[in-house]
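Summary for the funding panel

The consortium committed to producing paired sequence-structure records for every protein in the target list. Below we show the first two records in order, beginning with the earlier of the two.
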Amino acid sequence: MTPTARIRLRRACTAVAAAGVLLAPAAAGHAYGSPDAARPTAAAPSPDPGDRDFPELTPAVAAKLDAAIRNTLREAKVPGVIVGLWAPGKGSYVKTFGVADKETGARMRTDFYTRIGSQTKTFTVTALLRLVDQGKAGLDDPIGRYVSGVPNGDRITLRELAGMRSGLFNYSEDDAFDKALTTGGTRPFTPRQLLDYSFRHPVNFAPNAEFEYSNTNLVLLGLVIEKVTGRPLQEVIKEQVIEPAGLHHTLFPTSAAFPSPHAQGYTDQSASGDIVNATDWNPSWAWAAGAMISDLEDLRSWAKTLATGTLLKPATQAQRLKTTSVGIPGAGYGLGLFDVQGWIGHNGSLPGYESLGVYLPEERATLVVILNTDVLHDGQEPSTLFGEAVTSIVTPDHVYPGHKPTAPRHD
């Protein structure tokens, strides 16, 4: 296992602050070359499907966005990206740039399915909160009531798990897990196997003492949901979240199956540190923390649903939106979501893919970014770079993530 690969695995299924507001150790070595000169990176416009409330942005603003996104694509050496922005009073912008397949040169398309990584956390926690609203679980219940063998299980609450304040070791930082994933990306993992990687380590701090992003927390919440309902997590999320939210292209896979159409995904989280195609890697290793699949339009809809809390009781949504500091000005974490400079939502990263889905209540604006790589650029997540490029132009009073990363990350 190379140091590069180990560093990179630690941010898989990463969070907004962990991925964008906070700085990752710079990954050495491999990155993409410039896009093939025979395949220009001009924007491929895609009509906004019948949304009369959002006419297109003015040509001048659209041209600025085109230039900023092309520049980010080139500088970060990203194969392809889909960008969707909807801002009342300003307009909409839905375009693709670059390639979906580096071998064939096929272009990115707005109807692609994509692996959404840690945006899955927003669905898992929403399912939990729906059960809380139904009186079937309590946020201040100890995890030990539902899952045995958890370090500090009699003290860590479901609220602390959802808020990333449990102190439990993040299984995706375990060396043995790194090796198992990077040498066998197609192998399946069970939730209990993932917890075993975590529980072999001591806890990092007492419950609620600090914020520390950990995929272990969401695996435990997934098991709580299964314990309470007596049903598989994917069925509960479909029934309690996906269907009530009116999403039609969002699913929780139980294998490496990936609906078509989709882009090829490229990662350097390999045993050698070389860039490889991770399209068909099995996302079971991320399970409740990052296994889900969606598309542009569903992520657009979900960002608003998540931020406005239409699936939850108002009091529950208020608790969800109560954030605690992640150590960076303007960024806080609530229950399975971030508030970063007023943008509420989450991003996601797992080998081959990144996404960002956020909603700005103050301007009723939505931003979705989808790309087919997770290779860092100068220590930063490429999805964050695109978010910054877009918001700097369209919402200058709410730039995501607000400033350049300057501190060590906590993922």
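The next record, for a separate protein in the list, is shown here:
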Amino acid sequence: MRHTEALRGAATGRRRTVAGCTLLVVALGAGVTGCGADGDPLAAEPYDATDRISFSGSVDEGGTADPDEPIEVVAEDSDGRITDVTAVDAAGRHVAGELAADGSRWHSTSPLAADARYTVRVSTEDEDGAPGRKVLTLTTGKPGATERLAVTFGPEAGTYGVGQPLTAELSAPVVDPAQRAVVERALKVDSTPAVTGAWHWVDDRKLHYRPEDYWPAHATVRVRSNLEGVRIGDRLRGGTARPLTISTGDRVIAVTDAAAHRLTVYKNDEEVKQVPVTTGKPGFETRNGVKVVLGKERLVRMRSTTVGIAEGSAESYDMDVEYATRVTWSGEYVHAAPWSVGSQGYANVSHGCVGMSDDNAAWFFGTVREGDVVEVVNSAGKTMETFGNGFGDWNLTWAKWREGSALAGAPDGPLAEERARLRPQPA
């Protein structure tokens, strides 16, 4: 008796599995396919939910599909529904998609890569909750004559301070907001420990990435591109990009109070040293705000003509300077200034740099690294430029920073049209 009941239960489970797999996977109007044979579902093989996936018509298992058309999965049986669809290529890149609330339809929302092999997994359940799952593999075709958008990440691999932004240089300009969204969505940043961050479009060819706050100390940060082969525009597809891994050292932040003529260095949030300094005198005020160490030069020749001071004028100079830590491309340094030791801690007499004694400059030079934070407060100077003269990225609030992302913004922002296009339509 128990054996008979077990057989009946197994048969019932088989019926549910078959019903759970009664799906039609289509794109652009592929036809309907039946499930059973001779009206007996137990006499038929379970329906393969993914036998009818296509991009521009029916594509058989292992076939070639148009990468410019979306994947669409439709549940034709009202007694069953789709519970999940995943599509991933051989490189591990996942295709984003949207599933209708009632489980009747799923479609891809992110561009597909050309000349790529995809595995699509469709999970279903019938009205009794019995699951079904099928798999399809297919290959997208090669693109025609198109330009390839290469991406170069920066800085170079190595260890940096917690203020170092990531950069992405594009080989061609990208202006259209929807195309920028495609590019930005494919630029992936992972950090350990994890942080919240965002890309910001500096111009048509360059993006910077920073967290909401500085990077954590002793973090590992990885950036890569999933753009290769992906359609960006009519004649533009993603090209190659070499991934990049950097790490951060201690959290080193140097704060110069121009009014108090003092520089204070904090390491991992603890004060480690105060140094008397001099900053820019009237007419040559040091820039306020957050800067990032760009590099260090043991000895550098400084000439006034490079900052717009005419040779032979009362303010002109030409000298070799030791222990020079650069914070702007226009020539602002933290450096040794033995000629102004009598003013350090008391008055601002420099042409814009932060000057200190030889011993203090040597200590500072040996303490900081590229990417460390140097902030100036209480100066009469203008605020550090956000871009173009070094890294002033941190002078933007987080809200303002995110406004520079093609993926952020209000519902009526520049990507509203794209979001509407990708929204599932009624069957």
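Regarding this second record: The first strand starts at residue 24 and ends at 26. Confidence is low (pLDDT under 50) at residues 1-60, 410-427.
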